[in-house]
Amino acid sequence: MNVIDAQSIAGLVSDSANAMLDFLSRTVSRPSVTGHEDTVADLYAEFFTSRGWPVQMHRLAESKIVHSDRGNAETRVDERANVVGYYQRRRPGTPVVVINGHIDVVPVLDHDQWSRDPFSGARTDGAVHGRGSVDTKGGITAALWALHALDQAGVKLPFDVAVELVVGEETTGVGTSAALEHLPTRLGTIVLEPTAGAVVTVASGLLFFTVEVTGRAAHTSVPWHGVDVGPKVIEIYRALQSLGEERAARLTDPRMPFPSAVPLAIGTVDIGGWRAAVPARGSLSGRIGVMAGEKVSDVRHALATCVQHVATTDDWMRDHPPIIRWDNEGLRSWETPESDPVVRALDQGRRRAGLTSKIEGMTAGCDAGILTAAGVSTAVFGPGDMRFAHSPDERIAEHDVLEAANILANALIAWADHYQPVSMS
Ligand SMILES: [Zn+2]
Questions:
Q1: Is 116's pLDDT higher than 60?
Q2: What are the structural domains, with CATH classification, of the chain?
Q3: pTM of the model
Q4: Residue 413: left if φ>0, alpha if ψ -120 to 50, beta else—which one?
Q5: The pLDDT value given to residue 327
Q6: How far is the CA of 354 from the centre of ligand 1 (A)?
Q7: How much distance in Å is there from the Cα of 194 to the middle of ligand 1?
Q8: What is the mean pLDDT of the chain?
Q9: How many CB atoms lie within 10 A of CB 373?
Q10: Could you tell me the distance, in angstroms and rounded to a whole number, from the CA of residue 193 to the centre of ligand 1?
Q11: What separation in Å is there between the alpha carbon of 117 and the centre of ligand 1?
Q12: SS3 per residue for 234-293
């Protein structure tokens, strides 16, 4: 039992606020775009070595996952490594709580829309600015300084705490799969992503689809000799939109009070290819959300039925049915019960920090899907607003980073207080 009170933790967090936010600023100024995580890895490793805490670098090239399709899609596997550091010490055989965060950031493809250098790391107007500040270096910084505060308070934990800083989340998730090879058994994992401080316990999954329609080309001076796919693609588009609306109304979850918990969105529509020819080819592709607990095969069936229904009302499509392609495996949905220690700890962390309970769901994919599929209890938590992620002028409010550090420190204390030793094999 740790007798340290929440007020002392808050004091320690605010005492180190400047060091914490300067560290965040320095990490943001390292452009660790996926594939180049080595530009920032040393800063994170130094956080541990400067305190005499153990830290290891696990090169992607030495993982098993690197030999999979997902691994093959990654570059520079010799240079890229997960950074895994421990709070104070690693006691072999002791169960581990893991805090997972990705150190890669998405590239900047919209320079002209930024008001300053995307990798400035500038601290102004109460925020830290730059690519990666909210997704997800702010969360990582909060986690590291939560451990710093616990150390300052002399807190001893009955479990080990590993901070697993992974590569390749924004592309394939290989970093977290590689990390699981090193630490397959865990008490639970907190995945750092911007949730605005909410404890996320459920996420819908998604499937990527393409629908192709074939007509017959003709010179546009005599269009009646052709079969125009344009109206057919538009009809399928409308039918899919209705399917999305029907699913949104039916598949609801109080933790996801959004217009839809299972968004169906069409990202591309392609019709024709030549101005002076009746379009003979059309396609549309997008994503359909999958509710936690919903069978992937049922979702595929619902979409196929919707498209087939449109085809049966059209003479041409009855004989030339649209083709549906599922573009890859998509992303799994997942859910962690509220009774799980990882959820309880984060929820109590919020309360200890003087905040109310905030348990939510999300419609985005992240490494939590990989962890839960491997049987690891997982919740997603982190400071900042997802709205600023992958966007121009990405930024995070400094106050949010401090608050998250405070919550995480309190969550680990709460977890320790309820901890029943278990033997891990
Ligand atoms: Zn992220």
A1: yes
A2: 6-202+333-417 (3.40.630.10), 205-326 (3.30.70.360)
A3: 0.90
A4: alpha
A5: 83
A6: 27
A7: 7
A8: 95
A9: 13
A10: 5
A11: 20
A12: HHHHHHHHHHHHHHHHHCCCCCCCCCCCCCEEEEEEEECCCCCECCCEEEEEEEEEECCC
